[in-house]
Design goal:
Elements lengths: L7 E11 L3 E7 L12 E4 L2 E6 L5 E6 L1 H6 L10 E6 L18 E10 L4 E6 L2 H4 L7 E4 L2 E8 L3 E6 L1 H6 L10 E6 L1 H11 L4
Antiparallel strand pairs: 1-2, 1-6, 2-5, 3-4, 3-6, 4-5, 7-8, 7-12, 8-11, 9-10, 9-12, 10-11
Length: 199
């Protein structure tokens, strides 16, 4: 489990295609690899991946077809920056919200509004995910826990503060860019439980 509080922006230094429609990436990330061990979980742009071959400042991770198809990880190339977060420890503060690292879909940037102290970004969101999004609720975009500032029939907006713009990859988004979306897992569980009463 994760909280959606990005710890570090890593950089892709290697991408290798593997048999069976899989891929291995190597990520330069001095902070999150400081205590990384083989088998640990690190969220890469919101996708939970298993650490392989950690070194002093980098780690590798294998990406299976399901994750390549469902997320933006399949389009990563050498030089790209990614948002990184180590798995939550039981003793950690829950600074964001509960994030599983299992991407539900993709959203595309359709508008960016600049302000002196923040930036508002609007995303087109798949219809099947909209029912889990509420104004002032939580959403995870590329691994960052964010508050939904507005939501309509086919889009959501988030308002990004300077810290988020500076410390995550969200600050470089432009119209047309896509991000990984994970909706609030508590909303999905609630829907599943309540569906039993509707029968």
């Amino acid at each position: 489990m994760f909280t959606g509080i990005v710890e570090e922006r890593g950089r892709i230094v290697e991408v290798v295609d593997l048999p069976g429609e899989a891929r291995r990436i190597r990520v330069l990330a001095p902070l999150v690899t400081g205590d990384a061990r083989p088998g640990d979980s690190i969220a890469v742009n919101g996708v939970c991946l298993t650490v392989v071959n950690p070194a002093a400042s980098a780690f590798s991770a294998d990406i299976m077809k399901e994750s390549l198809d469902r997320s933006t990880l399949g389009s990563l190339v050498v030089g790209d920056e990614v948002n990184l977060e180590r798995a939550l420890r039981v003793s950690d503060r829950l600074g964001g919200h509960i994030v599983s690292g299992h991407v539900d879909g993709l959203a595309a940037v359709i508008d960016v509004t600049e302000s002196e102290h923040w930036r508002v970004i609007r995303f087109a969101v798949p219809e099947d995910l909209l029912r889990y999004l509420v104004q002032k609720g939580s959403v995870c975009l590329d691994g960052a826990s964010l508050t939904v500032s507005a939501v309509r029939d086919d889009w959501l907006e988030v308002s990004l503060i300077p810290t988020t713009l500076a410390e995550t990859t969200l600050g470089s988004l432009t119209v047309g860019d896509r991000v990984n979306v994970e909706v609030d897992v508590l909303a999905k569980y609630t829907e599943k439980l309540l569906s039993g009463f509707a029968r």
